[in-house]
User: Fold this.
Amino acid sequence: MKIGLMGYGTVGSAFYTLAQEHADTQIAALLDLKTHPEVACRQTSDYRSIIEDQSIDTVVELIGGLHPAYEFVTAALKAGKHVVTANKQLVCACYDELIALAEENGVSLRCTAAAGGGIPWLHSLARLSRCDRITAVSGIMNGTTNYILSAMTEQETEYADNLREAQRLGYAEADPTADVEGYDACRKLVLSANIAFGVSIREAEVPCFGISGITAQDVAAFKRLGLVCKLIAHASLREGRVSACVEPMLFPVSGQMAHISGPDNLISLKAERVGAQSFAGAGAGGFATASNVLADCMEIARGCETFYTSLRTPAAVDNAALEQRYYIRTEAGAQSMRLTVNAAHAMAAEYKNKQQPFFMAAVAEE
Amino acid sequence: MKIGLMGYGTVGSAFYTLAQEHADTQIAALLDLKTHPEVACRQTSDYRSIIEDQSIDTVVELIGGLHPAYEFVTAALKAGKHVVTANKQLVCACYDELIALAEENGVSLRCTAAAGGGIPWLHSLARLSRCDRITAVSGIMNGTTNYILSAMTEQETEYADNLREAQRLGYAEADPTADVEGYDACRKLVLSANIAFGVSIREAEVPCFGISGITAQDVAAFKRLGLVCKLIAHASLREGRVSACVEPMLFPVSGQMAHISGPDNLISLKAERVGAQSFAGAGAGGFATASNVLADCMEIARGCETFYTSLRTPAAVDNAALEQRYYIRTEAGAQSMRLTVNAAHAMAAEYKNKQQPFFMAAVAEE
Assistant:
């Protein structure tokens, strides 16, 4: 396999190192704005010199973000090159279009590292979806927020202090919005639900409430109740209707969920035949993510995988039937009430518009 | 795919039901000693009528045990048929021979359901082993013993009572030896280590101490120390040396391991690049296991998988460097001491020979 590598950040440079260690994966060219003295292959800052290179059969896109990744990936697919990417934002936003392009051009599109970092999550969903009916996917899909929430619980410190510490440790980016507001988890959820249920839901339809409003007082209140807070993405398929939501949830301190601390992920599925399964591991990190990217490449090299599933029935997100107990905290104090997901997230949006203090968390039910 | 199904027990009948639901998998014939009125395909009690049926491309072996499964599977491979099996005893005992036969005949041999029931464990090990160096595999690989140990811990009842209850519920077989003495976990460990490390170790070389000697008093003593007992299979690869062992281990009651109760499995790996990963789910059960068997069939139908890894470097099990703290209980009472795995298991064998009461459990270190 001759690879054109696009991007040389944390994951890109880790992938370069890993690919060098394997005889099957040869990196023919690297696209980056800077040149890197330690890189032995041809380097370029013009993506066309990778697209037009007939010797390159596979493009590994590790730039991230919507643009110019979209232009580069679509050009690669149209040029008949396989694409492996860890770019959840791109694959989530352009799900149907990218799969269709790959199919039209008879090439593979793989993105296992786009959800769960090094965990073979999307790969396992695809394997299971071929022979069982998956009815739910859920879990801790974002390491940054899990690190912050774990630290707040252990140290009883404020959100802002822990966000800074997460940034210092490299667990959070300079602009942490996508992580802390739940958008990153939301994209991983959309990808997971699409592959698991054989549907095509859209990110914009998924109610998404993050953790930026949480205070040390909230965490202390949860502790007194024997609960810990986790940012959870969950989706289910019931009677043909897809529900999906990202929100903080409260779990018993003695339970399994409470043990996932730091930047780890714990992702679970339910299926009619195999029952409940869960997968835990490093949800981010250069080498863990790069390893999953490389595993995707190896599968393409073995000639066995195209996309995870060819089914993509358009589906609207419908949370109407989903009602939970919520912890709601406003300036007036905290209270607990049963609400539909729609009502709770509408309330959150209202407080956000008014720029008034607000935090909510659903109480997990067994 | 036209399938010759061998065996119609719990997993066999579940597989028949599942395969019927999928257009890609057609069951052409069923081999069983009894005939089953509910089965629509051709039925036979002579395995040769399946081997000689040119229309059958894949044999699914769900009889279990060494013989006659060995004869049936080798005949199928020699006849150029793919084989999918959940038979850990067979694949473990005849690992090298079966892979070589499959390779010689250009067919696939898959056995994902042989370890972890419905969990895609061996499949994930193979995927990861192609691009990372796996250095350890371990966990709760046997549901029967986990059910018994969980029940003893929750109800403070004796081993024999819980074994009977497990048998009543279908979690333990009439002859529970393979489960309670750790042989079943040992076979799953050997398969896991072989695929993860690219070696070929032999079951007979793995020290194996089960749970049949545990008493309610032992469990009460662990509880007082804040510990719970689990039967753990663990193997690691260090400086080219493979260590492997099955033994009861003690974990903090507040930790993750303690939350795996009933017949569930929790299996983990460590690898250089992705770090620690774990997989949890139903480790047994007809439909969970059959679902994994069907997923293997689907992969063969997609033309993408042969065996998990082609590497099988013969390796001796070498536990010499492995030293742990052990809880040791004899007629003289209980004590805690640091011992090598070899010394501890030699002591266990000595007490067994003398037919004197003995139980031991290693204290898990993190």
Chain B touches chain A at residues 18, 22, 118-120, 123-124, 127-128, 130-132, 254-256, 259, 271, 273-282, 285, 287-288, 290-292, 294-295, 297-299, 302-305 (CB under 8 Å). Chain B has two domains: 2-110, 126-282+315-363.
